[in-house]
Amino acid sequence: MPGDMRLVQIARMLAVPLPELTPASAAALIAARPADMADAIFHEAADSDDVTGSEAAREYLEARLAFFGELAPPGAAEAIRAGFRERIGAWDSSAG
Predict the structure, then answer these.
(1) Interatomic CA distance for residues 37 and 40, integer angstroms
(2) What is the CA radius of gyration of the chain?
(3) Of the candidates 29, 38, 88, 94, which lies 20 to 30 Å from 1 by C-alpha distance?
């Protein structure tokens, strides 16, 4: 679907050319690069005025994963969550 905003965002987040992405290739890319997705979502959360702490950051992550839906396969979504938790842990450590 050429107008799929999810593909536009994945292309931006993973620095890949949008014309090359399809839903299937986006899902494969996320599955292959969950750490990069975790990093991109973490940076989005850190830049958001609405994310004021680690709990809000986790809510942001879950909202993003829900938005990407089937493009973030279950195994990849779990790896993204794990990577995001590591980044949140470092964030919490530096805040205290």
Answers:
(1) 5
(2) 13
(3) 38
Distance CA 22, CA 43 (A): 24
**CB-CB contact of 35 with 79 (8 Å):** yes
CA distances from 86 to 20, 30, 35, 80, 92 (A): 31, 18, 10, 10, 10
Residue 77: other Cβ atoms inside 10 A: 21
- In this structure, how many other beta carbons lie within 10 angstroms of the beta carbon of residue 41? 23
| Relative orientation angle of helices 54-68 and 5-14, to the nearest 10 degrees | 120
For residue 10, the enclosing domain spans 5-95
Give the pLDDT band (50/70/90) at residue 93: low
Where residue 1 falls among pLDDT bands split at 50, 70, 90? very low
| Tally of domains in the chain | 1
Work out the angle between the directed axes of helices 74-95 and 23-32 (0-180°, nearest 10): 50
